[in-house]
């Protein structure tokens, strides 16, 4: 009830939610009854959960921020949602996002932007700005996001929250409306590292419905966060800093906060090691070929027949109906990426664009492999700037894309990454995050390090 009250009080301004559940209190009451009847319930039972609208749910519409899916009700729950319900989490509602998770500001939502609770004139990051804003504004204690190129970590950075992208394959993608299938991962957005671990423990683990789901025994991430909180992990921890990451393009307060966080780690016994990751900076270029290519294929299913919107064209052909529906249902950014993707995949261009991008992806994976032979984690600023103003980058897609420079390489390489708050930028008083990356399967290491710094 407290969270529903908070949503009523602030969400008209923030617009974190696209849909608020009308039966959250019934679900909560049921959990109370089960607890009163002596049932053993897990640590998160009864805790409200905000769900990014990219995840399908049977009891609330799932739009992925697009008009083409307005009002769409899924016949099944995403695996992460089903697991959340089974653990007694109480779905509060569906959160706003850039259309089909394409964006860094939530301004590409077909339902209007979300605003940053720290400053309503500024963006909450994206694509999962709704989940991050809901958590930052105390509308929800826990939220689910998805991260294809930074959509969990960059919103966490600009809202002062914790966001973690798991190892690729660690959390099921079943029921996560696909953006780029080789990059997408679902993960938690929370206020603390321990909260993130508690939620990750619920949603993670092998799922036979997802062919890329890893069959791996994961440790408890909540336990890792508790272990990390002692700070012991920092003693002798080797933290890699990327030599090639250009200082230019990073806002002063972001760089300052990053250096201060490194100094604090050093003071507690960590060793800062300069590493070379020469291909890291080509991540954005490779990503904006690979992602549109995969997205153009994934979005082909919105054809006016199988899902969502259909615009009737009296006397028109099937193709007319499809074309008019896709024209009316997709926003500009989605159309831009479909065109980019189909172009990059077309005969004659495939090797030059998609093929080259895949090679760069392999080089980035090798950079990571070499780096992790020398260090335990890599640290970067989570994003180049603090929250920018609404409207500031909306007409300049390239500027928007460059916001992902530090987050994208982890998706290309499949490694886990966390963004945790590292203070406020001196010049604007807005939140800044620090990102840690670990080798694949070492998500628990990120919980230890993150909790140590909290
Ligand atoms: N900002 C990135 C993009 O626009 C990230 C998207 C994501 O992680 N879903 O593609």
TrEMBL record:
What does the record give as the active site?
52, 127, 151
Q: What's the superkingdom here?
A: Bacteria
Name the Enzyme Commission number(s) assigned to this protein: 6.3.5.7
Its UniProt entry gives the catalysed reaction(s) as: L-glutamyl-tRNA(Gln) + L-glutamine + ATP + H2O = L-glutaminyl-tRNA(Gln) + L-glutamate + ADP + phosphate + H(+)
Keyword set for this entry?
ATP-binding, Ligase, Nucleotide-binding, Protein biosynthesis
Q: Which Pfam families match?
A: Amidase
* InterPro entries tied to this protein: Amidase (IPR000120), Amidase_CS (IPR020556), Amidase_dom (IPR023631), AS_sf (IPR036928), GatA (IPR004412)
Tell me the ranges covered by the Amidase domain, including all copies.
Answer: 1-446
Any one Gene Ontology molecular-function term assigned to this protein's record: glutaminyl-tRNA synthase (glutamine-hydrolyzing) activity
Role played? Allows the formation of correctly charged Gln-tRNA(Gln) through the transamidation of misacylated Glu-tRNA(Gln) in organisms which lack glutaminyl-tRNA synthetase. The reaction takes place in the presence of glutamine and ATP through an activated gamma-phospho-Glu-tRNA(Gln).
The record describes its quaternary structure and partners as:
Heterotrimer of A, B and C subunits.
The family note in this entry says: Belongs to the amidase family. GatA subfamily.
Stored HAMAP family: GatA
* Name by which UniProt lists this protein: Glutamyl-tRNA(Gln) amidotransferase subunit A
């Amino acid at each position: 009830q407290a969270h529903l009250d908070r949503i009523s009080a602030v969400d008209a301004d923030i617009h974190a939610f696209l849909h608020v559940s009308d039966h959250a209190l019934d679900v909560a009451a049921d959990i109370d009854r089960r607890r009163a009847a002596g049932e053993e319930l897990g640590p998160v039972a009864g805790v409200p959960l905000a769900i990014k609208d990219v995840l399908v749910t049977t009891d609330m519409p799932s739009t992925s921020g697009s008009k083409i899916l307005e009002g769409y009700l899924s016949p099944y729950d995403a695996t992460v949602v089903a697991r959340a319900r089974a653990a007694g989490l109480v779905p509060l509602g569906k959160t706003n996002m850039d259309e089909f998770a394409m964006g860094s500001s939530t301004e590409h939502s077909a339902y209007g932007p979300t605003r940053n609770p720290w400053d309503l004139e500024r963006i909450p990051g994206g694509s999962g700005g709704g989940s991050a804003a809901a958590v930052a504004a105390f509308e929800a204690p826990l939220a689910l996001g998805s991260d294809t190129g930074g959509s969990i970590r960059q919103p966490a950075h600009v809202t002062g929250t914790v966001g973690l992208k798991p190892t690729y394959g660690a959390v099921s993608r079943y029921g996560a409306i696909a953006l780029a299938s080789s990059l997408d991962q679902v993960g938690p957005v929370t206020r603390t590292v321990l909260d993130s671990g508690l939620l990750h423990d619920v949603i993670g683990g092998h799922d036979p419905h997802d062919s890329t789901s890893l069959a791996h025994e994961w440790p408890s991430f909540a336990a890792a966060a508790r272990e990390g909180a002692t700070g012991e992990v920092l003693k002798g921890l080797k933290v890699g800093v990327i030599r090639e990451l250009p200082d230019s393009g990073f806002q002063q307060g972001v760089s300052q906060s990053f250096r201060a966080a490194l100094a604090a780690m050093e003071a507690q016994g960590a060793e800062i090691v300069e590493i070379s990751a020469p291909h890291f900076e080509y991540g954005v270029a490779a990503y904006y070929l690979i992602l549109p290519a995969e997205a153009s294929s994934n979005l082909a299913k919105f054809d006016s027949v199988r899902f969502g919107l259909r615009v009737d064209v009296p006397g028109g052909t099937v193709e007319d109906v499809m074309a008019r529906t896709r024209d009316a249902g997709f926003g500009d950014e989605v159309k831009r990426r479909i065109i980019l993707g189909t172009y990059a995949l077309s005969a004659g261009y495939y090797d030059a664009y998609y093929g080259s991008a895949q090679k760069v992806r392999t080089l980035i994976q090798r950079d990571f492999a070499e780096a992790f032979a020398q260090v335990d984690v890599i640290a970067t600023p989570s994003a180049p700037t603090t929250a920018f103003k609404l409207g500031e980058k909306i007409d300049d897609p390239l500027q928007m894309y460059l916001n992902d420079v530090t987050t994208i390489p982890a998706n290309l390489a499949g490694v886990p990454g966390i963004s945790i708050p590292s203070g406020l930028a001196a010049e604007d008083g807005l939140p800044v995050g620090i990102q840690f990356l670990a080798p694949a399967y070492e998500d628990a290491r990120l919980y230890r390090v993150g909790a140590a710094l909290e």
